[in-house]
Amino acid sequence: MSSTVHTAPSRLRDSHGRVIHDLRVSITDRCNYRCVYCRDGEDGAKYSELSNEEYLRLIRVFVSLGISKIRLTGGEPLLRKGLLELVTALAELRTLTGEPLDIAMTTNGHLLDGLAAPLKQAGLGRVTVSMDAVDAAVFEEITRVPKSFERVLAGIRAAQSAGLNPVKVNCVLLRGFNDNQIEGFARFAQEEGVIVRFIEFMPLEEGRLWTPDLVIPMNELVARLSGVAPLKDLPPNDASETAKRFGFTHGNGELGIIAPVTRAFCGACSRIRLTSDGKIRTCLFSQVDHDLYGRMRAGLSDEELGAYIENVVRYKEQRHHIGEPGFLKPSRSMVHIGG
Ligand code: SAM
Known about the structure:
Elements: E1 22-26, H1 52-65, E2 69-73, H2 83-91, E3 102-107, H3 112-122, E4 126-130, H4 136-143, H5 148-162, E5 168-173, H6 182-192, E6 195-200, H7 218-226, E7 231-234, E8 243-248, E9 254-258, E10 271-274, E11 279-281, E12 290-291, H8 292-297, H9 302-314, H10 334-337
Helix pairs in contact: 1-2, 1-9, 2-3, 3-5
The structure holds S-adenosylmethionine.
């Protein structure tokens, strides 16, 4: 079950009637994986990182406006120096209704084995691990890092033991790359007691790989999964849930399908993003960044920064235009936005 309950007040409302509660913060755009569908193979980060104090000042302003959920991401967030101190400080913040923040992280899990317990102790609530194959050889072909599969599996198990629950495992599916893993993932969900969520591939890569044919649409996926074991529908955890949830008719385990391409959920979007260099992005597919950090450096007060954020949110894009004529790729790729 998600611990997020979107009943808290928020001053962050867009012109399409959506209320924004969730902030995804990229704390570095460095990554130790070079996943073939995401990175172009180069190692370098493109953008700077703020200091912990700078992130905290900006996040406090967001929280004062109504943000109640923070997801740390990247790049690879576990590479960030000072991560435990940052999480400790975030855990001290309170929402507008006086509750602790819902603090989550999306990670590739490579360094999670050693960090899961300290992160839990620092105040992290739960974790989502990205893992695109259950077969070690396929996994390492995708990440382009040897021995990565064992590390991630150990990380998932360490997260479960540390109580970073529910542990979710996200798999981006690409036809011809890893769609032979679908049935294996259904068994993995049952055996490991994790929530496995399949994500449709979006045009957010550094290179020029995306075509509609690479996307495994939700209907096709449901048919394949039903062949492993009978599925039952599960209700959404909350109104802005991105995944269509399924349980198994017999036994444990949960599956989810996140279908931004064939079943877009923009109408219920409650998210905005802060990049590692302090820019606000109101949509993954935005053509522009909004320079919050620059305004902070120029000396704006917290009230002035808050007014700026409210105004930026007001103009959040209504929806993305993937697959439509004239679609433009966003001005940054996923690794440099924060997924
Ligand atoms: N390094 C962390 C990780 O691996 O989870 C966080 C950053 S990563 C960019 C966040 C998520 O975005 C991962 O689950 C990754 O698979 C996903 N992702 C990257 N490119 C994508 C794309 N083009 N379409 C859909 N998901 C994508």
